[in-house]
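lol forgot to send this yesterday, sorry. struct tokens for the thing we talked abt
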């Protein structure tokens, strides 16, 4: 028996997993051996991956705060639930489970030692309106390497807001996480992800939302700090009128390396998707951003769009952005917009007229750059509108600022921006 096979057997036994899950892990490990340990997206554009083999032999710690109506289980508890096990088995054996694209992510899926399963059923407020359940999941990443899995199962008519925060680790830490959101009809799930890992740590994320008819999955993520991240987020829209949205803010500073891929796959009629990203790069950071709208043959009345805008604030920083469309049907609407620029004098002209200094004007502009992504009702026509005097007045007083619908996210972005001095 190989070393990894022994590891899988011990992990599966310690979690009291059924035999099908042991076989599933072995299959993932075998597939991982066929996957590349280094990936190139183009000339001199490389994926962000660990330089050496990773054992994933540690276990992450969790702190959770959940609303009373939410059923929450550890992985070991979940696979003992008669109602949940068939759903997990069907999901993990299906094409809906996110497949690893690199060797390290594949090994992580085979060797994960912990996980959380949220089972969300519909509930009502006292006035009869649907209640949105809430879950705050704080994960302490250990020293060394670890991997886990998070599964959300949203039953028909259920609503959930999940906030996930990562912290801890050290310079050599590697953490891998697979997140799957599975919805039934009329279910709505919002996921917010924040990362404050130790400088030099590496994180590998593989996330997928599966939206059934009249359901929605919305991802909001912030990538910041002098860390290395490879992240893949996809919404699969499998039912009529399904909706998916991905919003990402990428703040590259120091020696940060970010490799971010966002995609929407339309598999049914009347589906709607949006991918929006804003980023900046300073110091010697490097960002690779890729976006994809995929519309399969035979679907109709489909709307999908992606927009990404990046600012380069240092001569040694690098940004490579690659948007793409894969359209196999005619009765669809699909768009993409991309820009990589720097802060221009015209971007800060009006705020200076209001009496703000050059540095204050640049900081205000950077906030607006990200706020356009995270504002629930923001127009996606343009990320950097020419603000009117009235608009700047509202922004400087923190009232009516685009993005106030997601104030906690904007506060995190402001904190990250406070350490950045545009040149």
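and heres what i got for the seq, position by position
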């Amino acid at each position: 028996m190989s070393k990894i096979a022994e590891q899988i057997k011990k992990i599966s036994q310690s979690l009291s997993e059924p035999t099908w899950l042991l076989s599933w892990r072995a299959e993932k490990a075998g597939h991982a051996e066929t996957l590349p340990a280094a990936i190139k997206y183009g000339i001199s554009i490389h994926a962000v991956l660990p330089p050496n083999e990773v054992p994933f032999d540690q276990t992450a710690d969790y702190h959770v705060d959940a609303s009373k109506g939410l059923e929450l289980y550890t992985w070991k508890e979940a696979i003992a639930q008669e109602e949940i096990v068939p759903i997990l088995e069907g999901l993990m054996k299906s094409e809906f489970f996110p497949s690893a694209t690199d060797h390290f992510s594949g090994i992580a899926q085979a060797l994960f030692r912990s996980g959380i399963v949220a089972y969300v059923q519909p509930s009502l407020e006292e006035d009869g309106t649907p209640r949105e359940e809430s879950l705050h999941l704080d994960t302490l990443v250990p020293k060394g390497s670890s991997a886990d899995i998070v599964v959300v199962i949203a039953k028909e008519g259920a609503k959930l807001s999940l906030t996930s925060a990562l912290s801890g680790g050290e310079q050599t830490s590697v953490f891998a996480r697979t997140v799957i959101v599975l919805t039934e009809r009329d279910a709505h799930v919002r996921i917010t992800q924040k990362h404050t890992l130790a400088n030099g740590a590496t994180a590998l994320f593989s996330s997928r939302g599966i939206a059934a008819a009249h359901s929605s999955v919305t991802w909001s993520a912030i990538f910041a700090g002098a860390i290395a991240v490879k992240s893949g987020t996809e919404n699969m829209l499998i039912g009529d009128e399904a909706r998916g949205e991905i919003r990402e803010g990428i703040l590259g500073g120091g020696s940060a390396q970010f490799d971010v891929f966002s995609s929407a796959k339309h598999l049914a009629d009347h589906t709607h998707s949006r991918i929006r990203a804003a980023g900046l790069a300073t110091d010697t950071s490097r960002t690779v951003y890729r976006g994809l709208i995929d519309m399969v043959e035979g679907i109709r009345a489909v709307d999908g769009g992606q927009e990404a805008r990046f600012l380069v604030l240092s001569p040694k920083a690098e940004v490579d952005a690659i948007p793409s469309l894969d359209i196999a049907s005619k009765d669809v609407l699909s768009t993409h917009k991309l820009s990589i620029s720097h802060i221009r004098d015209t971007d800060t002209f009006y705020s200076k007229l209001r009496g703000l200094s050059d540095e204050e004007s640049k900081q205000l502009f950077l906030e607006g750059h990200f706020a356009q992504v995270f504002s629930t009702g923001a127009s996606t026509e343009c990320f950097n509108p020419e603000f009117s005097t009235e608009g700047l007045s509202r922004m400087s007083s923190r009232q009516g600022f685009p993005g106030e619908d997601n104030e906690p996210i904007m506060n995190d972005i402001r904190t990250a921006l406070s350490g950045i001095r545009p040149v």
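The CA atoms of residues 3 and 9 lie 10 Å apart. anyway ping me if u want another try
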